């Protein structure tokens, strides 16, 4: 009789992580697992199997035939682990454990920062882990409790809750404050386009009298996070289209200037998106409630 192989479920999850990410480095970044841990798990499984599970190519990792056969079990182990984690977290009557959130750097600073401080005071048994990213990841794919996004997410399987509403405004370097500008001068400064879901590539604004202003000159650059735009503006170059809830604070602190202040861009809403049933987890539910309450209080003063 062939000797039974005792497979570590965590090693199976690692196989799925590597398949999803395509390389050791990408999996380490995406799933926040040390590269050495990933490498050891893969080596252990391949040693048990006696054959490679991945081909090491210059472009990354590609499943071998054996790896393809193992993939359904690896995916099932990953899903089972996430389900078990959710069940245990829901079973607790009070918020505790780890809370996993993703947001852009600017949203993390302006929205999440104050909320996490108050949340940690109220619920000291919860550890908050914030993943800073501009692309608005799928919380179901990356096992996140919630993600902050500009605009309502397109994925129909995600649950959403509106956090705050704003309008877009045009912002430039601080030395531009109170100076009149023409469209040609704005073009000369250079458009910094924030290339994230929910942010417009061409900028359209309107004043209270119905006058319209459209800025669609070729961009100076594209950035994947609003915080990068702030760094460029601080150097004295460029203009950016930002949600007013972020930009106006920077104007008050002298870090930015509001250009064409009589004009406003389209409405924008920031949503918390989360997988089904995550709101049943006490820590997630408590954080969502506090975030909505504090955001509305802060931005309607």
UniProtKB/TrEMBL annotation:
Matching PANTHER family: HTH-TYPE TRANSCRIPTIONAL REGULATOR, TRANSCRIPTIONAL REGULATORY PROTEIN
Record keywords, A-Z: DNA-binding, Transcription, Transcription regulation
Similarity section: Belongs to the LysR transcriptional regulatory family.
The name this protein goes by in its record: DNA-binding transcriptional regulator, LysR family
Annotated GO MF terms: DNA-binding transcription factor activity; sequence-specific DNA binding
Pfam families referenced in this protein's UniProt entry, alphabetically: HTH_1 (PF00126), LysR_substrate (PF03466)
UniProt keyword annotation of Transcription regulation present: yes
Residue intervals passing through the bilayer: none
Span of domain HTH lysR-type: 7-64
A GO biological-process term: DNA-templated transcription
């Amino acid at each position: 009789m062939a000797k039974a192989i005792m497979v570590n479920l965590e090693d199976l999850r690692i196989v799925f992580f590597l398949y999803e990410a395509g390389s050791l480095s990408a999996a380490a970044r995406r799933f926040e697992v040390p590269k050495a841990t990933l490498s050891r798990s893969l080596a252990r499984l391949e040693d048990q199997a006696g054959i490679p599970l991945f081909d090491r190519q210059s472009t990354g990792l590609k499943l071998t035939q054996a790896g393809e056969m193992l993939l359904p079990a690896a995916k099932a182990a990953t899903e089972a682990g996430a389900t078990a984690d959710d069940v245990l977290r829901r079973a607790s009557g009070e918020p505790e454990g780890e809370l996993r959130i993703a947001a852009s750097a600017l949203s993390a600073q302006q929205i999440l920062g104050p909320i996490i401080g108050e949340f940690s005071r109220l619920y000291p048994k919860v550890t908050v882990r914030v993943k800073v990213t501009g692309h608005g990841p799928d919380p179901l794919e990356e096992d996140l409790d919630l993600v902050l996004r500009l605009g309502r997410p397109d994925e129909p399987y995600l649950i959403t809750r509106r956090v705050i509403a704003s309008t877009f405004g045009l912002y430039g370097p601080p030395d531009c404050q109170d100076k009149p500008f023409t469209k040609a001068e704005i073009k000369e400064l250079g458009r910094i386009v924030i290339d994230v879901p929910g942010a417009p590539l061409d900028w359209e604004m309107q004043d209270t009298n119905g006058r319209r202003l459209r800025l669609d000159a070729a961009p100076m650059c594209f950035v994947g996070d609003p915080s990068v735009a702030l760094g460029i503006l601080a150097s004295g170059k460029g203009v950016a289209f930002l949600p007013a809830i972020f930009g106006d604070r920077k104007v008050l602190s002298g870090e930015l200037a509001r250009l064409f202040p009589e004009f406003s861009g389209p409405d924008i809403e920031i949503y918390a998106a989360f997988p089904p049933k995550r709101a049943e987890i006490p820590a997630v539910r408590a954080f969502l409630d506090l975030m909505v309450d504090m955001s509305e209080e802060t931005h309607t003063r």
